[in-house]
Amino acid sequence: MPFEPFQPPRPARRDTPASLLIAKGMRRIADERNWCKDALCNEERTAFCALGSMIAFRSDGGVVSSLPPSVLSLLNAAASKWGYNNIVIFNNRPDTTHADVLACMEEARLAAMEDVPRFGDGAAWLAAMEDVPAEEADAPLYEGVTGA
Q: Does residue 95 form part of some domain?
């Protein structure tokens, strides 16, 4: 009987604020008519690029919330699997399809789920990554996005 090394069980994947935010963006552009290139969103704010799909806009077009650096890093890392080091460049390339963008975002969402810390909950982890005071860690980071 060959020796089988001990394999510790992998923690179950669970949603984190980062994975929920990416999923929200994916839902926003799930219909190809709601996806665009070369701008965060169209003038009517009915179509969004990969990045714009996760940003909240005011009625005057101003940005209400920006993307956390940790989420942007996950998206850029996923885009690198397609040969681009930046999600914006990947989204805007003429040969990038809607399906490519959704697949890239799904890659980032799954990576966000794998990055669950072995301590605390996802909201506290994401807050720590962004230098948010600990007392604010349990507050929703974005509309509709809460901790795991």
A: yes
